[in-house]
Amino acid sequence: MRAGFLVVGVFALMVLSSAPIATAATAVVGSYNFVDLDQGGWAAGPLYADGSVGGSGHFSFDNGANVGTITAVSWEPAGPDAIIMCFTDTNTKGTVPLFPSPLCVPLPVGSPTIVSLAPGERSLIRVTLNQ
């Protein structure tokens, strides 16, 4: 009798542990890619339907005196050919931030485009939205 309960108990644990766990997920509706054309910086990741963003990136400027991470925070549509995307930055070396955080900027959708997000800075940006 004990062996029967043990077998049933082990079987129940096996079934419960192999059952998929339901998680709330939002669909990927696009992606972004940002590459600094000067000293260095990049970021990339997916754009989600709920306005959240995945991925992150890094930066280095002043010949490596300032280094840190770039994190995309949110996005929203800004017409048929643009989005507004918000980023934060965190220094891991040095004291000069890359930009005032959070920074929200309009970005074109479609072909790769060179933009300037700060005086003298040039970046290649590509935002794609799934059709």
Taking the sheet with the most strands, its summary is: 8 strands, antiparallel
Low-confidence runs of at least 5 consecutive residues: 1-23
Mean pLDDT: 78
Count of distinct structural domains: 1
Q: Note the total helix count.
A: 1
Structural class: mainly beta
Strand content: over 45%
The coarse silhouette is globular
- What level of helicity do the residues show? 10-25%
Taking strands numbered 1, 2, ... along the chain, how are they ordered across the largest sheet?
Answer: 6-5-4-3-2-1-8-7
Structure, explained:
By secondary structure, the protein is mainly beta. The protein has one domain (27-129). Helices cover 13% and strands 48% of the residues. The chain is built from one helix and eight strands. The protein has one helix at 2-18; strands at 28-36, 41-48, 56-61, 66-77, 82-93, 103-108, 113-115, 123-129. An eight-stranded antiparallel sheet has the order 6-5-4-3-2-1-8-7, with no helix packed on it. A hairpin with a 4-residue loop joins strand 1 and strand 2. The longest helix has 17 residues, at 2-18. The radius of gyration is 22 Å and the shape is globular. It starts with a helix and ends with a strand. Mean pLDDT is 78; it is low at 1-23.
